[in-house]
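Example record used in the benchmark description.
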Amino acid sequence: MSNCKRCEGVRAFVYGCSSEPLLFKVYALPCVSKRAVSIDQVKNHSIDPIHRAVSLWSRMGVVTVLPILHVTLSAGIVEIEREPINYKTTPVQDRVQRLKQQMDHGDVRLEWDNKRGWLTSVLKHLDVPASSQTLVFSKTSLQIRRISPSKPRAIYFNDDTYVGWVQNGDVIELSAVDSKQGGIFYVLKQQKAERPVIIRDQGDCLTCHASSKTKGVPGYLVRSVFASREGQPYFGLGTTTTDHTTPMGKRFGGWYVTGTHGRMRHRGNVIARDDRYNPIDPEKGANIVDLSKFLRVEPYLERGSDIVALMILEHQSQMHNLITNGSYDCRHAFHYQKIMNRALDRPTDHETESTRSRIVNAGDKLLRYLLFCDEYTLGSPVKGTSGFARHFSSLGPRDRKGRSLRDLDLGRRIFRYPCSFLIYSESFDELPAPLLAHVETRLIRVLRGEDLSGDFQHISPGDREAILEILMDTKPGFRAKENALE
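Model output (C-alpha cells):
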C-alpha cells in the first residue's frame, strides 16, 4: 500500500457498489476531489479513475467525507473509447438524442408539472407508457440519497428507451439504445426552465452500465439484492443480475412487485435482514396487488410495480446487451484482422480463423437468448395489475393469422412464441453483416427443423413453424432470405 500524492489517501484494492473487485488499484480518499478526469488520463495511468467518479458524486451531494470510498470501475470503459468503437465521439441517433435535438432546435417544448417535474411530458415525447412503471427501493442507482423503501425509484420503458424518476430528484435519468453503440445515457435537470436541456453522460453512468453485468458493453441490468430498511443492499449476501433464465425465487430483491403468481415466490416487497441463512421471509411479499401498505403511491403515475412489466424488462435488458456485445465483438474482430493483415502483408479482405470463430461464438450466444434457451419454467400463472400486458401485446406486428411475437403466455413461460420481439429492433437489423447473416441463417435452419441441436429442443415443431410464418409475414426481407437459403 502507498499514499496518494494528491490527497494523502491510502492506495487500496477495494470492493465497489456492485460487489466486484476493481480492475484498477485506486485510492481510498479522505478528501472530496472536485477535479474532472479525462479518459486519456485513465488510459495513461496519469491519474486515478476514482477522482472522476468522486467529482460527479460530490457535485450531486452524494458524498461529503469519504474515509473509504467503495466504487467499481470497469476496464471496459477504457476499451470502448478506442477504435473501432469510439463510444463517446461517434454521433448517435437514439430516441433520446432525437428528442434532445428537437428541444435544442425549439421544435419540441416540454411541459412542467409541479408534482413530477418534466416526467409526464418526457414520457409522452419518448412514447413510453406509464403502465410500464416498476419501482425499485434499493440504493443501487445514481440518486441513492433520494431512494428508500418509502420513496422508491420509478423506471418506465419501451422497446428501446428507459426513464428513471425519483421523488424530489435532482435529475430525470434517461437512456436509449443506439443501433450501433448500444446504451446511451443522459440526464435532464428537474428544474423549471424556459428551455430545459438534456445532457449526455460523459462516462459516469458506465461505472455500472458497462460491466460484466451488462456483457461488458454500455447497456442495462435488473439486479436483485437484499436491501435493508433504509434501502442499502447487503452486498455480503450476494446479488443476482436477472433475466428470463433466473429462477423466480432469486428475482426482484429490492423491488416492489404487484401481481399474482400463485405458489411461486420471489424476493420482492420485503426488507432483508443481515442474516446469511435467513435474510427474508418471501411469504410476506407474495401475491401483493396493493402497495399502499408499503408506501404512499399517490406521487407515482401508477399505483403498482407490475410483475409482467418487470419480467419483460428483465428479458429485454439482457437482449439489448447481447445485441450490442455481438456488434462490438464483430467490429473488434475485423479491426484486429485489418491490423494483422496489414502487418503480415496479406490481402485486406483475408478472413482469419480467429475472426470467423468470434463471429460464430457471438452469433450463437445471441441466437440462444433470442430463442429463450434455458428459460425458467413458471410454476404458476402470472398476472399483473396494470394495463401494461394489454398495451404491450397490442403493439404487434401480427401475421395473416393474427399471431404476434408479443403474444404473452404467462402460464408456463413469458411469451406464447419463444422468439424475442427485439428481432424487429433497429439494433438487430444493423448488426455487422457477417454476424447478422450467421444469426439469421442458423435461425431459419432451427425454425425449419433442420438444426435439431440440443440448445433448441425446447421449441416444439408447432412453435418453430409458427415463428417462421410470423417472421415471414411481419419482418421485412425475412421471407426472401428464407427462400434464398438452400
